[in-house]
């Protein structure tokens, strides 16, 4: 038996959860994107605004109403969620890849942090970045279009769930990729199609049967559809179903990320 102040080599000295280490990692990930806010926060807001303006000018006047609301109002929540998930993914994936390329990933793996604490610490940064982007875009939509969330708590839940899902997916991508071009390939061929082909700019009811069924296999569709229901009160699927599917997908991806960190897959020599 060891006294309260004596520990054997390898003993965990922080209880079940290393709260100090988890807080430090989360704080590092948040400060990381805040220190370059013009790239991580301002740039996505400008991009989201440009999407809204361009589609409104090019298609809006001729498109008419979609699901009983003006086209611009219909696409606004989709653009908001698309921006959130892209930035949540970028936050975790870039953090891991940069650490691996620069060779300082050991600074994250050496401290007494469990695999679960590593996952939660990285997720905190991605979720925080996504939530800030969502809040700024929601404010802009209110000022520009007068959109007030129809179901604010639901909108918040889907935004946080979307940020968590893509943050966890970003962890998988960051663990797998060893070079920036590998990460670019994952972003271009997986993440971007998932975001664009998920009902962001259209109602899936207009799709042919084959694409309609495929779209319903995409978790991002349920995130965008849920955000649309929370913001303007219309959706293609039932919000409860969408939340269940998105939550299940998020838990599955988080579990896979935990297993990879636990094994040190593509992280340790």
Our measurement of the CA-to-CA distance between the termini, rounded to an integer number of angstroms, reads 35 Å
Poorly predicted runs: none
How many strand units?
2
Q: Biggest β-sheet, characterized?
A: 2 strands, antiparallel
Order of helices and strands: HHHEEHHHHHHHH
Counting H and I runs of at least 4 residues, what is the number of helices?
11
Strand content: under 5%
State the shape.
elongated
- Mean pLDDT over all positions: 90
Radius of gyration: 20 Å
Helix content: over 70%
Strand order of the largest sheet: 1-2
How does the helix and strand content classify structurally?
mainly alpha
Care to describe what's here?
There is one protein chain. It is built from 11 helices and 2 strands, in the order αααββαααααααα. With 269 residues, the protein is mainly α. A two-stranded antiparallel sheet has the order 1-2. α1 (19-34) runs parallel beside α6 (115-145) and α6 (115-145) packs antiparallel against α11 (239-263). The radius of gyration is 20 Å and the shape is elongated. The mean pLDDT is 90.
């Amino acid at each position: 038996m060891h006294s309260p102040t004596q520990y054997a080599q390898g003993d965990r000295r922080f209880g079940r959860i290393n709260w100090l280490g988890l807080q430090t990692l989360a704080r590092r990930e948040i400060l990381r994107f805040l220190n370059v806010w013009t790239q991580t926060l301002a740039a996505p807001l400008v991009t989201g605004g440009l999407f809204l303006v361009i589609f409104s000018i090019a298609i809006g006047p001729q498109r008419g109403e979609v699901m009983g609301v003006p086209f611009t109002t219909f696409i606004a929540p989709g653009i908001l969620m698309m921006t959130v998930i892209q930035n949540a993914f970028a936050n975790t994936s870039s953090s891991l890849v940069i650490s691996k390329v620069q060779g300082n990933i050991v600074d994250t793996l050496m401290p007494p942090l469990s695999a679960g604490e590593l996952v939660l610490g990285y997720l905190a940064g991605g979720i925080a970045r996504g939530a800030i982007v969502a809040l700024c875009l929601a404010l802009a939509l209110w000022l520009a279009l007068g959109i007030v969330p129809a179901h604010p708590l639901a909108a918040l839940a889907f935004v946080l769930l979307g940020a968590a899902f893509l943050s966890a997916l970003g962890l998988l991508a960051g663990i797998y990729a060893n070079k920036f071009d590998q990460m670019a390939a994952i972003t271009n061929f997986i993440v971007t199609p998932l975001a664009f082909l998920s009902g962001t700019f259209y109602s899936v009811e207009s799709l042919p049967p084959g694409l309609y069924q495929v779209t319903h296999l995409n978790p991002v569709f349920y995130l965008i559809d849920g955000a649309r229901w929370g913001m303007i009160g219309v959706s293609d699927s039932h919000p409860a179903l969408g939340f269940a599917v998105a939550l299940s997908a998020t838990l599955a991806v988080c579990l896979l990320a935990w297993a990879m960190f636990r094994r040190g897959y593509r992280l340790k020599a």
